[in-house]
Design goal:
Number of helices: 14
Number of strands: 0
Structural class: mainly alpha
Strand content: under 5%
Shape: globular
Oligomer: single chain
Order of helices and strands: HHHHHHHHHHHHHH
Radius of gyration: 23 Å
Distance between the termini: 79 Å
Mean pLDDT: 81
């Protein structure tokens, strides 16, 4: 038997992928590694919050594995505790996760060549932070060697860290006193994640507008402040991008000075 035949099953599976995809996978995992402390802390806080809510430990574990969306999980916990109808839980989770519609639309040009089941799998493992990192690296749509591997390197690293930390929080929640203030801890855990995604003026504008709207609408019922903040952030980001594009066009026009390329002007030497 050859060394490959003697290797473990996971090694044989790893070598089934092209070398460029394997290298890109490792590159993605290494690039995402500095973000792991923030992901771990956020997952830990979410796990503790689920365990201390109306959910049992098995229900909390199932929610962490199947839902895999920290903001949505935390948003629906008060609804479970209040005994509200299940449709309000589904609606709240859907609204909180509306941003993934935009993420999916942005990823489609990059992975449209994949079959539906693989695109669905990509969508399930997609997340805020590695989506931003992926879009920063790959500006051009369409197939590129290593593109899918790079995405999976970040996505699976993020997912593994999240699930481990979330399960630790669920199983060890009794060690964390309620007086620590889990809501504040969750907010503090999210700050590094949010700050790392601010890489342009439009993103900064969206964050500032969302913060202002969320504060002004804080007292609205059913967490409508979150819905309005998301919509306001999208509108602010789009408006900021449009203004930046117009400013660029004006600068180009001013720089050209109205001269046509190659056309002789008065005073030019012949």
């Amino acid at each position: 038997m050859t060394p490959r035949q003697l290797s473990p099953a996971w090694t044989r599976l790893w070598h089934r992928f092209a070398e460029v995809e394997r290298n890109a996978f490792l590159d993605g995992a290494r690039f995402f590694a500095p973000s792991l402390p923030a992901v771990f802390s956020w997952g830990l806080v979410t796990g503790v919050a689920m365990s201390k809510s109306a959910l049992t430990v098995p229900q909390a574990i199932g929610m962490s594995l199947l839902v895999y969306a920290g903001s949505a999980q935390l948003a629906v916990l008060p609804l479970f505790a209040a005994g509200l109808p299940i449709w309000t839980v589904w609606l709240t989770a859907a609204v909180v996760n509306l941003r993934f519609l935009i993420f999916s639309a942005a990823l489609l040009p990059h992975f449209s060549y994949l079959p539906m089941w693989r695109r669905t799998l990509l969508g399930f493992f997609n997340g805020d932070l590695h989506f931003v990192y992926f879009m920063q690296r790959y500006a051009e749509p369409g197939y590129a060697p290593g593109k899918e591997g790079y995405f999976w390197g970040m996505a699976l690293t993020n997912c593994a860290t999240w699930q481990v930390s979330s399960l630790i929080g669920i199983l060890l929640a009794s060690m964390f006193p309620d007086s620590w203030g889990l809501a504040l801890a969750g907010t503090l855990a999210l700050i590094p994640v949010m700050v790392s995604t601010i890489n342009s003026r439009s993103t900064l504008m969206a964050v500032l507008v969302a913060a202002v709207v969320a504060l002004l609408c804080f007292d609205l019922p059913y967490r409508l402040a979150l819905v309005l903040a998301v919509l306001a952030a999208i509108a602010a980001g789009m408006a900021s991008d449009e203004m930046a594009n117009r400013a660029t066009l004006r600068a180009i026009k001013r720089g050209g000075g109205g001269r046509e390329a190659g056309a002789p002007q008065p005073g030019d030497r012949t």
